[in-house]
Amino acid sequence: MIFQDVQITIGYFAVLAIGLILGLIGGGGSILTVPVLVYLFNVDPVLSTSYSLFIVGISSIIGAVSFAKRGQIRYKTAFFFGLPSIMTVYLTRKFVVPNIPEMILFNESISVSKDALIMSLFAMIMIVTAIAMLWKKQKELAPLKSQSSNGYWKIILEGLIVGLLTGIVGAGGGFMIIPVLILRMSMKEAIGTSLLIIATKSLIGFTGDLSILSINWLFLIKLSFITSVGILAGILASKRVSSKHLKSAFGWFVLVCGVLIFAKEFLI
User: Could you tell me how far CA 181 lies from the centroid of its own chain?
Assistant: First the structure.
């Protein structure tokens, strides 16, 4: 009982940290939401992906409002990236996830369940993302003055891919959005635009689950409130913290978490 109370307390601090990371770098924190829900709050993996969309969506829209007030959101880019991403994540949550069989593979030597598949996919995305963050140091580039039609087609394609992954694993996708956006705008604008995209597609994706899942609204609203406090604190702290150092530390943390999750599902 004591261990369970400690575990839940750690979970609340972890949810606060997720909001803090979202506020600091405009993405990345949401990739930790599902592992926190599954391993600290003992929520079913499929339900956790749904909860993650709501928690990240609510907190991100609060953060986006803060950036919008300062004129640090590129709405045109958000539209071309967000619209295909929103459509894909909704369709994935509505039709793909419910139709994944409970047992993916079963024979004498190996068995892979739906839950194990989701967590393993999540772990692989975490590992690949972490390696990309650590391998290629992201630096803030001078924002592009114009955007060709070819550039927008690239944004649309990236939005479709991010939407598909978001729909399956329940992450906001900011860790994939930010590297794309900083090639087209300043870091502050990239964070604000990323939060708007994450908020919109996460909440719309969540609506695809309302008719098929039983939602514990009190629990969900409680965690969303804590994450929102974290994201506001992160926005304030972003003025003093080096994004370069934060991304590097976060990259190592995500890498370790991804390896541990993968090991737990298949090796332990």
Answer: 16
Extract the tokens encoding 54: 């709501």
12 DSSP 8-state letter: H
| Number of separate domains in the chain | 1
Q: At 251, is the secondary structure helix, strand, or coil? A: helix
Phi, then psi, of 138 in degrees rounded to 5: -80, 130
Task: Kindly state the tokens that stand for 116.
Answer: 């194990």
Q: Which residues contact 202 (CB under 8 A, 6 or more apart)?
A: 30, 52, 53, 54, 56, 57, 60, 89, 166, 172
Q: Residue 264: is its pLDDT beyond 70?
A: yes
The DSSP code for 30 is G
Angle (nearest 5°) at CA 57 between 60 and 146:
60
How many Cβ atoms sit within 10 Å of the Cβ of residue 28? Answer: 27
Closest CA to 34 of 45, 26, 23: 45
Of all residues in the chain, the percent with pLDDT exceeding 70 is: 81
- The residue segments making up the domain with residue 131 are 2-266
Q: What are the tens digits of pLDDT across the range 185-231?
A: 777 788 889 889 888 888 888 887 787 778 899 999 999 999 999 99
The sign of the dihedral angle between the CA atoms of 163, 134, 57, 35 is positive
For residue 268, give the H/E element and its range.
Answer: none
Q: What is the dihedral of CA 254, 131, 164, 34, to 10 degrees?
A: -10
Question: With contact defined as beta carbons under 8 Å apart, do 171 and 30 qualify?
Answer: yes
Flag whether pLDDT at 140 surpasses 60.
Answer: no
Percent of the chain with pLDDT over 90: 17
In this structure, which long-range contacts are made by residues 36-44, counting pairs with CB atoms below 8 Å and at least 24 apart in sequence? 36/11, 38/119, 40/7, 40/8, 40/10, 40/11, 40/14, 41/8, 41/11, 44/115
